[in-house]
């Protein structure tokens, strides 16, 4: 039988893409099944408990909120105000001014009666030099600590914050995120429900705040975003959080906790060496490194995800900004996966190496190029007249009905 | 006419408070979150505000602040879920007149609110 | 596509595929696809409608019950000697299990948040409506969340006669049942109930411990006579909890035992022991002054 290069080439693409799609779809079905169970479990669990008892308890873990800020002078005062209204017993709020070129520091000093302090900073993690640390003279703002340092990026700022933080648990937030009032209780509770496994990191659902009404740093009315791009992103966030992350949390294979709102066990973070300043995807990289560390130490651990919306953020509404954001996310994923390629199908790392990493590699990172080439191949075949349109029709209908059933219905 | 604004998340407790105070001659406005409470403070103009601390949207502390700086100088009775000395001191510093904890005695609460009202009436 | 046909396992499948791709069939297929989409949509719509109707029924009953309960409590306040009356409409509704469970939820909230005569009335109602039967059923359930709910109802409604059942749950494999059972026994008996610590083989989570310590503050402190046994247990989480107890209620006689815990192999025990010692040192100094 004469097999031409063309045949090999086209068959490779045809069956390769087919196999890829089938695997991807099965993964989605599997994930949705796990996610459903986990959501069910979480709902039952919260119905029975009253976590408000955590607030005044002397035994509750101390928390340090780290909020790096760069050129946010327009909104920084309001943002800090909203952070200060959070109700929790042992709470410290650290705002890190990452060498802003605007007047952020002056504004903060004026608004919160800040003065420089002579504080010993343990050099646990190497960072760019810290210029000054400010504390408030006003008793109402005694939880607030402002760090002024040279510009070094988000990861570097967070590392500086970690050095100074006195809490057992660090909560890393984007300073312009709006937190729910009970966000801290909810995100800290998994750390305490340690049934054999040590919880090293937790994350919650991040939702889109576009077109929502915000008063005094509080979200008072939820609206569907008016902008088309924001609407699509809102849907995407809901799907990815409730479907993807819940499922991975149940499987204990979660690789990513959103940089917008995540809580980490400080001692483990320091043991791992803090955030990596050489990557743009520092949030994912830290989680992967922490997991890897726990595996290498042979300690049972868990990374938990909470399906409740704890944090609201503004999504980009212009294509340009969105492009930049997605570009950064993809680059971050590529860099993280590259740095930790030792995990790829490595049985020594259990689920992390055998399932999580490969899934992220094939279906998150490689998805874009594979899908691109798939469409290109399809177009070429279409031009060459090789497409069997009826079969295409069936596949198309099938995929569309799957896509439709995987989108959360707005009820 | 004595007006009372009650902010309470649990619907059944809200109903009980509503009935009890109404039976005692109070005109009641109820809500279960901070946002409605803020609006009602302006439209209903209560004499006294009875609120929780952990409520949706605005916290009880913010309601307290808002009530004290209101034109009517609304007195605030805080009904909190737990005895937390730090929050208690904070409430009193901000001008709350009373701080009760749950579980609470209905008659005691009624008495407290009435006492506050009478003290208000006195110049 | 020929290769695909070759791969297809049987002739029947082959034939099916051939049919599937013929134009005539496809015309029908479009109709079939449309109809199936419609069916799917209708099913979803039906689900949503049913849920809405259920929600409305639930709301209506809840409102009715809440109003009645509020009225009954006010009646009791104004006429303390008059017994409360359950309207025939309500009695009829309360014969359905669904409504009884809803009523139980409302009574639970009331009992948690109210004191005094209102509270006694709630407990009376619980007994009068024989809601204990529902609680018992929940305790027997195989679904853990229902068991947890049942345990909660036992201790909230002061059902002391079920203490043995709660103690039995104290070492359940499910951490949430365990947690709730511990909380329940301590809620009802305070320090006396801590005898369950000896029997627990599974670990005591931090959340569990926080809740227990908080609950114990509502009772009068008692000498912790079983402390030597607790500190010698194999279950490290119980040792840590015992040390936390000692930190909150220091007793000089156990000072040496705590010091010995500093050499324990478990890091958490060491950490807690050192915290406890610091507290005891301060306390002893205060006693001397």
For the termini of chain C, the CA-CA separation is: 94 Å
Could you state the order of secondary-structure elements of chain C as H and E?
HHHHHEHHHHHHHHHH
- Say what oligomer this is: heterotrimer
Largest sheet of chain C: none
Characterization of the model:
- The complex is a heterotrimer of chains A (411), B (123) and C (289).
- By secondary structure, chain A is α/β, with parallel strands linked by helices.
- Helices cover 49% and strands 18% of the residues of chain A.
- Chain A has twelve helices and twelve strands.
- Chain A has helices at residues 5-48, 76-84, 104-112, 154-164, 183-192, 228-251, 266-272, 282-297, 319-339, 350-365, 367-384, 389-406; strands at residues 63-69, 91-98, 114-117, 130-136, 144-149, 169-173, 178-179, 198-208, 213-215, 218-221, 261-265, 301-313.
- Chain A has a ten-stranded mixed beta sheet with strand order 3-4-5-2-1-6-11-8-12-7, sandwiched between helices.
- In chain A, strand 4 (130-136) and strand 5 (144-149) form a beta hairpin.
- The longest helix of chain A has 44 residues, at 5-48.
- Chain B has helices spanning 11-23, 34-44, 60-68, 85-93, 106-121; strands spanning 3-7, 27-31, 48-51, 75-80, 98-101, 104-105.
- In chain B, helix 2 packs parallel to helix 3.
- Chain B starts with a strand and ends with a helix.
- Chain C is an all-alpha fold.
- Chain C has helices at residues 2-7, 11-20, 23-78, 88-93, 97-113, 116-128, 132-139, 144-156, 163-169, 175-189, 206-216, 227-231, 236-248, 255-261, 267-288, and one strand spanning 114-115.
- The mean pLDDT of chain C is 87.
- Strand 6 of chain B pairs parallel with strand 1 (114-115) of chain C.
SSE inventory with pairings:
The complex is a heterotrimer of chains A (411), B (123) and C (289).
Chain A: H1 5-48, E1 63-69, H2 76-84, E2 91-98, H3 104-112, E3 114-117, E4 130-136, E5 144-149, H4 154-164, E6 169-173, E7 178-179, H5 183-192, E8 198-208, E9 213-215, E10 218-221, H6 228-251, E11 261-265, H7 266-272, H8 282-297, E12 301-313, H9 319-339, H10 350-365, H11 367-384, H12 389-406
Parallel strand pairs in A: 1-2, 1-6, 2-5, 8-12
Antiparallel strand pairs in A: 3-4, 4-5, 6-11, 7-12, 8-11, 9-10
Helix pairs in contact in A: 1-6, 8-9, 9-10
Chain B: E1 3-7, H1 11-23, E2 27-31, H2 34-44, E3 48-51, H3 60-68, E4 75-80, H4 85-93, E5 98-101, E6 104-105, H5 106-121
Chain C: H1 2-7, H2 11-20, H3 23-78, H4 88-93, H5 97-113, E1 114-115, H6 116-128, H7 132-139, H8 144-156, H9 163-169, H10 175-189, H11 206-216, H12 227-231, H13 236-248, H14 255-261, H15 267-288
